[in-house]
Design brief:
single chain, 17% strand, globular
Length: 89
């Protein structure tokens, strides 16, 4: 018996997106996360600082973000920082 598939023009429903905070918590499990008050930094540094990832010799992993950063931006930054860290490991 021969079966055929029929193509449809409707696009599939995108998967449900997690809440940015929940997704952030999943991605950072086991990583120490800190928020820094950047108000005392030089304006150029204060405006440019979006996050930092550090892996210590003892294996401790630390993520630092500016205090009050938007959760969607923080999620995007953590994805970028962790993907870069994996690429250089």
């Amino acid at each position: 018996m021969h079966e055929s598939a029929t193509a449809t023009t409707a696009s599939p429903t995108p998967p449900e997106r997690q809440d940015p905070i929940d997704e952030f918590n999943v991605l950072t499990a086991g990583i120490h996360v800190e928020e820094w008050d950047t108000s005392t930094l030089d304006e150029r540094l204060r405006n440019g600082f979006i996050g930092h990832y550090l892996e210590c010799k003892d294996g401790t992993r630390i993520l630092v973000f500016p205090l009050g950063q938007d959760s969607a931006q923080r999620l995007a930054v953590v994805r970028t920082l962790l993907s870069r860290a994996e690429a250089t490991a």
